[in-house]
Structure formats: structure tokens, C-alpha cells
UniProtKB/TrEMBL annotation:
<keyword id="KW-0677">Repeat</keyword>
<keyword id="KW-0694">RNA-binding</keyword>
<dbReference type="InterPro" id="IPR012677">
    <property type="entry name" value="Nucleotide-bd_a/b_plait_sf"/>
</dbReference>
<dbReference type="InterPro" id="IPR012337">
    <property type="entry name" value="RNaseH-like_sf"/>
</dbReference>
<dbReference type="GO" id="GO:0003723">
    <property type="term" value="F:RNA binding"/>
</dbReference>
<dbReference type="GO" id="GO:0008380">
    <property type="term" value="P:RNA splicing"/>
</dbReference>
<comment type="similarity">
    <text>Belongs to the ESRP family.</text>
</comment>
<protein>
    <recommendedName>
        <fullName>Epithelial splicing regulatory protein 2</fullName>
    </recommendedName>
</protein>
<dbReference type="InterPro" id="IPR000504">
    <property type="entry name" value="RRM_dom"/>
</dbReference>
<keyword id="KW-0507">mRNA processing</keyword>
<keyword id="KW-0508">mRNA splicing</keyword>
<dbReference type="InterPro" id="IPR050666">
    <property type="entry name" value="ESRP"/>
</dbReference>
<dbReference type="InterPro" id="IPR035979">
    <property type="entry name" value="RBD_domain_sf"/>
</dbReference>
<feature type="domain" description="RRM">
    <location>
        <begin position="320"/>
        <end position="400"/>
    </location>
</feature>
<keyword id="KW-0539">Nucleus</keyword>
<dbReference type="GO" id="GO:0006397">
    <property type="term" value="P:mRNA processing"/>
</dbReference>
<dbReference type="GO" id="GO:0005634">
    <property type="term" value="C:nucleus"/>
</dbReference>
């Protein structure tokens, strides 16, 4: 037997059903016996929503009113009545089992499952298997319209069914027509058999992912704006009703190994992915979640792994994974098992523990633990911030993808993680950042946050050839992410005017971008932390030069240091010969190229940062001029700090720490050389710092 089911929400109707997160307000159903071709009683039930504010489309199409819905039963009561009435009708027809049949997948996947999940009550088993009438119709009549273009009306017209929608109540006509379509498919000419129902997964299945797997880019999305404490199960619940692939939730981590509020999710097919995209800006608690397309390469980069140890650890399926952070470096497996205690036994004992280590075997203080059930995992989480040895231990829910990410991150960490790669003197610039009042620059405002340099160049079109070398400047926020703004230096004011006229409000991805002509002076004000608006220029509030500009995560290959300090950082002084890889004698020296103006920017730490400038012909890094490479190859340097280990790196400084606090911290230690003045040309501020009485010099 089939139970033909139709429903409507208080918002969008048709192809956008469920996309606006509105609640269900109507259910209509009727039992159909496929063997005897008899039908049961047609039932129509209104549903009382928590929000009775109906959209204009809903009022027009359904004819329902908030007053009428206010007298209805809530959804949980209506679903109980549904089960009881269906069972009663089946008995009358002499049947005992049934499968739902709906017009498309939206009612089941995008309305019922998400809403019941948010309201914390379970759907009965019958809602996890259903027939999609549109797919069944296309299978029976291959010459009909494509599945995505089918509606109840178009299917009825294809069969020549004479039905008048205006003669019946909303919902009743739809169900009666669906029943008539099913009987036509069962006729002798077709003899269609309903054999392969659609299924909804009961729960998300965890599992490992190998970098050797092939992941279809049409099945992956990126979710952004997640609460930092959300787990893979929370994300699976957000996408309730859609089938996520096994091990298909990968939480993204930042450079510190902490979650950054993003996740990549892999679905079983492109149809499920397209339905997931319709949940853009749906809510998880009080936060709305952005959903975008992603690629299979991005998913493998986050979730894929190659370690046999990790694969063996994750081979135990359907386990709850807990991450432990802050373990003493001397902690053993016995110590961890003793810390967790008998109330939360680890799956497989010691085999259920995975310590994270550096490539040389040193412990990182992280470990992952497997538990066989949710109860044991909850008992373990209660030990959050309890003491092991002399340290408190943090415990969090984790995922298989996070295990892979953490292991990949630490295993790829160099043995000397405290030294940047590689630092050498800054070469004098061959170009300058624009200044003056000539309006030969353009400002792009409203860029998609996912836009990169390649997207901007494609957006500019033929005008790309008129961009100055190294003339593209992305504006980053405090977290080092794109702010939605960018500046581009053109070869002339006329070129800038033409670009502003041609590209203003042109679409990039799903957003229009505003393009304004501006001057080099205005561009520099914004890049240095000022603001540019209709009321004019607002200068940067911070007027002190930053001696050490912030690092740019997107340009890891460029080592940026101030010009005054460049001569103090010689590769001979920083990298002892015993700890650097052997290089070919014929290989040219690596030269990091960065303009002095950009290295001495007046930074405002509460506003924006400029990214390193980029050339359209050298996207992704700053190329040094050939002459600069030759000069660096022939230059001879006298190491200022000849002793290995003469430099130290400080981590964990308060954000408001200044040079005076650092110098005070190191009082009582050895004196720095006092002959810097004859070696390098210093600014007045740097010279005053170096000449002041102290024990250490901060560079």
C-alpha cells in the first residue's frame, strides 16, 4: 500500500518549499491499495505553527488564515493522529504495511525532518522511506519532462487527466490528482512497479577518508558560521533529512589547531548536495549558517589522510571520538586510562588511544580517544579541565576528519618550528605603492569573502592588462581573512575611469561588486587603517609605526621584516649548518622580495590590514627582480649574531605588550652588541631603542 502525502508550510511553495525554514501548516493524505486499486478515506489536517505569520504566497495559494490555524493541533499531535488514522484505513483495506509517496522530496527531506529535529521529537520509521512520484512517473514515462521540471499539474496534463484545481480545497485536489496519476501508472499499458523507494539515513556514520579516494566536487559543500563547540553530529543534525556520506563531515581547523567555525560536508550524490544548498542561512541555535559549494580537492585536503596508524585507529566504526588537549609530555597510556577511570572505558583499551606526535617522536600534548557509546563519551566530557599531573586537561568532541587534520598538521611540521622560512635581507624595491592625488586606482567593495586574486582578475576581464605590476591589494580583517574590499593600481587615470564605468555593480559569483575610482593617497589611507566614505577621509587612529608587520597566512612563502632590521637577520646567524637541509651548490639563493613602504606601514590593529601586493603575472607570491637575485648571490655578509641559538622566539604575549615590557622581562641577561649604528642605517625611533640602557634588543 501507498500513503499519498501532501503538505504546505507558512512560507514558500513549490520548488522553494522548505528553503525559508518556515513551519508546516497543512498535511493531506490518503491510503492507496496497489493490488485492489482501492483507496481509503482522504484526510486533511491543519497544523498549528509556533509562528502564525503567513507569507503572501501562502495566503494566496492555500487560502488559510492565522485564525483558522490557531485552532489546530501542534505538529507532534498531528503526526500521532496520522499514524492512528493510517493504521485504521489499512485495516479496512485488509493491509498491514505501507510506504509514503510524495510529490518530490522537499516535503519529507526539507520540511518534516528538519522541523521535527529542531523541535526535539522523533519521526516514526515510515518517514525514513518514501517514493518520489516525480521519479517514478519519469521512469514509467521516459518521454515526459525532466524530473526537476515535473509538477502534479504537468504530470496530469501529460496523461490528459481532466481535473479542475479550482473545484477542490487546497491540498485535496493535489492528493486526488496524485492518486489518479498512480492508477494510470498501474494500468495494463504500463504495469509500473514501485520497487525502489528513497531512503533517509537514521544517523550519521563516522569513518576514515583516504587521500587516494576520488571525491566528486558536485557532492561537497562548505558550511560557515558554525559554533566553535559544534561536533559532526551537530552538523549532521543541521542537515537532517539529507544523506551525508560515511565520514563526510570535516571540521576545519585554524593555524593554531582550533576549529574556525567552518566545515566541509560530503553528500552521497549531487541531488542531496543541491538540497543542502537550499539551507543557506538556516539556523543552528541562534546562529545562521552559510552554505556554499566546495570541491572534492578541498574536502580531501581537510579530511584525507595517509597514515596507517590513523587508518587503523579509525577502522573501528561508529565510535565516539574525544580529543584530549594539554596532556603532560610525560603522560603514558596508563596515565590517560587512569585519568578517564572505569566509568568511561576506552574501546579496545590502549588500542583506543592515539597520541599525536611530531615527526621526531616528541609528544604534542594532544591525544584522541575512542568510546563505544554516547554514555561513556558524556562521562569523559565531565572530566573537562580536571587535573592530570600538574596540568588541567581539556576534552572536546571530535571527528575522524579532525583526527586526520591534526595528524597531518603535526606530521608536516618542520623539526625547527620556531624559525621562519627562510629570512634573508630585503632587496630595495623596483616599484612603489602609489601616492599622490592622481586618481589612477580603483576600489572594489562588496567582494564575496571566498573571492581570490584569480576571481578579481577574471572579474576585471580585458582590463587586467592595464593593471600595474604588483598592483592588486586585498584588504584583510584582523583575523587575516578577506574583508570584501580590494584596491587595484591601474596604469593611468583614464584606465581607472574606464574600469569603474565598465565593472561597477557587475556580478562576481552571487554578489554584485561596486567599483569606484580613487587616488593612491586614498588607497594608502585605507590600507593603513583609515576609512574612506562619503564624508571624506578619516586618518588611521594609530600613528606609531609597526616595527614588525603582521604575518599573512595566505602568503606563507614571503618573509616580511622591517628594512631597519633586515641586516640583523642573516641566514648564517639564524640557521646553524647542522640543522639546515643540504642545498645544491648550483642552486641560486632564495630571495624574499617585499617593498620597503609596505614593510613600514602605519598599522591600525583595530581596523584592516593590507595583503602583500600581487602582480597579475605572478599570482600567489612576490617575485624578486633578476638583478636582486644576482645581488643577493654575490653579497657577502658578516654575521651580527654568530652564536647558534642567539635568537629566541616568544609565544603567548599579551596583545598590548610593547617593547619596554619585553625588555623589562629580559632584565638580568647578557648584553647585546652596542655597535649596530655602524652596520645599518636606523630610523630615529629604532636608534633610540638600541642605544637605551638595557640587556636585550627586541627586533
Amino acid at each position: 500500500s501507498l500513503v499519498v502525502l501532501f503538505g504546505a508550510t507558512a512560507g514558500a511553495y513549490g520548488a522553494k518549499l522548505g528553503s525559508d525554514e518556515r513551519e508546516l501548516i497543512l498535511l493531506v493524505w490518503q491510503v492507496v491499495d496497489l493490488h485492489s486499486k482501492k483507496v481509503g478515506t482522504l484526510h486533511k489536517s491543519l497544523v498549528k505553527a509556533d509562528n502564525l505569520d503567513l507569507s503572501d504566497q501562502c495566503r494566496e495559494v492555500s487560502g488559510l488564515t492565522p485564525e483558522g490555524l490557531g485552532k489546530a493541533e501542534p505538529l507532534d499531535r498531528v503526526l500521532q493522529q496520522f499514524s492512528q488514522l493510517v493504521s485504521s484505513d489499512l485495516k479496512v483495506l485488509g493491509r498491514s504495511s505501507y510506504t509514503l509517496c510524495s510529490d518530490g522530496q522537499l516535503l519529507i527531506r526539507q520540511v518534516l525532518h528538519p522541523e521535527t529535529s529542531k523541535k526535539n521529537f522523533l519521526l516514526s520509521d515510515c518517514f525514513y522511506s518514501f517514493y518520489d512520484l516525480r521519479k517514478e512517473f519519469h521512469t514509467c514515462y521516459p518521454s515526459s519532462a525532466a524530473v526537476k521540471d515535473q509538477t502534479i499539474k504537468t504530470m496530469a496534463e501529460y496523461l490528459g487527466l481532466g481535473t479542475n484545481e479550482a473545484e477542490e480545497d487546497f491540498g485535496v485536489w493535489q492528493v486526488k490528482t496524485m492518486v489518479a496519476i498512480i492508477f494510470s501508472m498501474l494500468s495494463e499499458g504500463c504495469n509500473h512497479a514501485f520497487t525502489e523507494p528513497e531512503t533517509v539515513k537514521y544517523k550519521y556514520e563516522t569513518g576514515p577518508c583516504s587521500k587516494s579516494e576520488t571525491v566528486d566536487s558536485e557532492t561537497v559543500i562548505r558550511a560557515r558560521g558554525l559554533p566553535w563547540q559544534s561536533s559532526d553530529q551537530d552538523i549532521a543534525r543541521f542537515f537532517k533529512g539529507l544523506n551525508i556520506a560515511k565520514g563526510g563531515v570535516a571540521l576545519c581547523l585554524n593555524s593554531q589547531g582550533r576549529r574556525n567555525g567552518e566545515a566541509l560536508v560530503r553528500f552521497v550524490n549531487s541531488e542531496q548536495r543541491d538540497l543542502a544548498l537550499e539551507r543557506h542561512k538556516h539556523h543552528m541555535g541562534s546562529r545562521y549558517i552559510e552554505v556554499y559549494k566546495a570541491t572534492g580537492e578541498e574536502f580531501l585536503k581537510i579530511a584525507g589522510g595517509t597514515s596507517n596508524e590513523v587508518a587503523q585507529f579509525l577502522s573501528k566504526e561508529n565510535q565516539v571520538i574525544i580529543r584530549m588537549r594539554g596532556l603532560p609530555f610525560t603522560a603514558t597510556q596508563e596515565d590517560v586510562l587512569g585519568f578517564l577511570g572505569p566509568e568511561c572505558p576506552v574501546t579496545g583499551g590502549k588500542e583506543g588511544l592515539l597520541f599525536v606526535k611530531y615527526p621526531d617522536g616528541r609528544p604534542t600534548g594532544d591525544a584522541f580517544v575512542l568510546f563505544s557509546c554516547e554514555e561513556y563519551a558524556q562521562n569523559a566530557l565531565k572530566k573537562h579541565k580536571e587535573i592530570l599531573g600538574k596540568r588541567y586537561i581539556e576534552l572536546f568532541r571530535s571527528t575522524a576528519a579532525e583526527v586526520q587534520q591534526v595528524l597531518n598538521r603535526y606530521m608536516s611540521t618542520p623539526l625547527i618550528p620556531t624559525l621562519p622560512t627562510p629570512i634573508i635581507p630585503v632587496i630595495p624595491p623596483a616599484y612603489t605603492i602609489a601616492t599622490g592625488s592622481i586618481r589612477d586606482c580603483v576600489r572594489l567593495r562588496g567582494l564575496p569573502y571566498t573571492a581570490g586574486i584569480d576571481d578579481i582578475l577574471e572579474f576585471m576581464g580585458d582590463a587586467t592588462g592595464d593593471i600595474k605590476p604588483h598592483g592588486v591589494h586585498m584588504v584583510l580583517n584582523q583575523q587575516g581573512r578577506p574583508s570584501g574590499d580590494a584596491f587595484i593600481q591601474m596604469k593611468s587615470a583614464d584606465k581607472a575611469f574606464m574600469v569603474a564605468q565598465k565593472c561597477h555593480k557587475k556580478m562576481m559569483k552571487d554578489r554584485y561588486v561596486e567599483v569606484f575610482q580613487c587616488s593612491g593617497e586614498e588607497m594608502n589611507f585605507v590600507l593603513m587603517g583609515g576609512t574612506l566614505n562619503r564624508s571624506g577621509l578619516s586618518p588611521p587612529p594609530c600613528k606609531l609605526p609597526c616595527l614588525s608587520p603582521p604575518a599573512y597566512a595566505a602568503f606563507q612563502t614571503a618573509a616580511v621584516i622591517p628594512a631597519e632590521a633586515a641586516a640583523l637577520y642573516q641566514p648564517q646567524a639564524l640557521l646553524p649548518t647542522t640543522r639546515t637541509p643540504q642545498a645544491s651548490a648550483a642552486a641560486p639563493p632564495t630571495v624574499t622580495y617585499y617593498p620597503a613602504q609596505a614593510a613600514q606601514l602605519y598599522m591600525n590593529y583595530t581596523a584592516y590590514y593590507p595583503s602583500p601586493p600581487v602582480s597579475p603575472t605572478t599570482v600567489g607570491y612576490l617575485a624578486a627582480p633578476p638583478g636582486a637575485v644576482a645581488a643577493a648571490a654575490t653579497a657577502t655578509h658578516t654575521p651580527i649574531l654568530p652564536q647558534p641559538g642567539a635568537l629566541v622566539r616568544m609565544q603567548g604575549l599579551p596583545y598590548n605588550t610593547g617593547m619596554k615590557e619585553i625588555l623589562s622581562f629580559f632584565q638580568g641577561y647578557q648584553y647585546a652588541p652596542d655597535d649596530y649604528n655602524g652596520l645599518i642605517q636606523l630610523s630615529d625611533q629604532a636608534r633610540s631603542v638600541l642605544q637605551a640602557p638595557k640587556e636585550w634588543v627586541c627586533l
